[in-house]
Amino acid sequence: MLKVIRECLGFTQEQFAEHLAIDTTTLQGWESGRRPLMAISTGAYLSLRHSLLRFGAQPRLLAQLDMALEADRFVGYVLSAKAEQPAAVDHPLASWVITRPFTDLVAWPFTTTAPSGLAGAIRTTGRRGPVATAPALLPDERAHFFKHLKSVAEGADVDRVDGMLLRRQAHYVASFDDSDDTADWLTAMQRTEERRMSRGHEWTPSWAVVRSGAHSLARLGDREGLQHFIRTNLADEVCEIANLNYWAYWLGEINEPQLNDTFMIELKPDTWHGTELLRHLIGKLYSTNPYADVVAHTLWALVMLRPSTLDPRTADDLKEATTRVLEEATVSPQSQRELEAIIYALRMIHRG
Q: Looking at the domain assignment, is residue 257 inside a domain?
């Protein structure tokens, strides 16, 4: 992240080090990971942050830098823990509901996909110095990382809310491993959690685990599992609100950190606006998106719940995306019906 900020400011490593009044080797160590930035004192980090702001760094990138330290702390925790140690109550994944910026940063070394918060900030040319194009872990570190996550997911205390949070989030982050073994493990875990739910139409912590699992499997190519989840586990009003609340939190419309998954049913949906969620979902409504069906369903639920979020431009964009996906006819029959209902709702709004 520090390298991204430096390159956005147009500095070479030598120039940047001079402006920060540090040795070039120190900067190179920070950027390459040989010297963890999180190891410096809080005062030194705040001084660095203020300097970056003074140089003209974008506030959104500074926010990403802050979150990158949190991601580094998490990765460091996992790598220093025993691969098969019992799930601990103080595990980072049991302490808060992780967000999209955090998850994108954690996934970066494994998927090589730049975080969404860095859109337009990555430079593809002009690099100088021994700096990789993305964070990287050694093969044995990657193996240890995913082995640990699988172990804590399996060993989490299913009788505790924080245990189920740990189970869900370890299960989800483990899905960034693209090996066949992990795909098989994810499928087996999903079946186990589906059996744990006493009744599929009611919200429980297991519901949240199954929701995340269905998304993970969809990313790996199993779209039918996600369609099954929508049909059987989003047919209840409470679960529908839970799904919307989670999307709003994931995308930053709910700013307050949440400590466990029960916020999905405890939070009133009128505490967030929905504009950012609507725009995000419209941008993700395309047939090749592995999450296309849940995007269509969530759009339908959001439009039905809060039609006031549809300003004229957004309504036009929604109509265009919805019409295109309907013409391509690659989503499930339920998604097609829900998209048709959106078109009808747009017509009624326009008439009104």
A: no
Give residue-wise pLDDT tens across range 15-63: 999 999 999 999 999 998 888 888 899 999 999 999 999 999 999 999 9
Q: Is residue 216 part of a domain?
A: yes
Neighbours of 188 (CB within 10 A): 11
**Structure tokens that stand for 113 in this block:** 């996909």
Ranges of beta strands (E only) in the chain are none
**C-alpha count within 13 angstroms, C-beta hemisphere, residue 227:** 15
Same-domain check for residues 32 and 100: no
| Residue 200, pLDDT score | 53
Neighbours of 338 (CB within 10 A): 22
CA torsion angle 102 105 109 111 (round to 10) = 90
Q: Tokens in use for 276?
A: 């950012």
Residue 156: both structure tokens together: 């989490």
Cα gap 328→309, rounded to integer Å: 26
Contact 319, 343 (CB under 8 A): yes
By residue range, what is the domain housing residue 49? 1-57
Which residue has 């070394």 as its token pair? 109
Q: State the CATH number of the domain containing residue 8.
A: 1.10.260
DSSP H helices, 160-311, are: 161-174, 180-196, 205-219, 223-233, 237-250, 263-266, 275-283, 292-305
Same domain, 234 and 299: no
Please report, rounded to a whole number, the percentage of residues in the chain having pLDDT higher than 70: 95
Checking if the pLDDT of 130 tops 90, the result is no
Average the pLDDT over 275-295 and give the result. 94
How many domains would you assign to the chain? 3
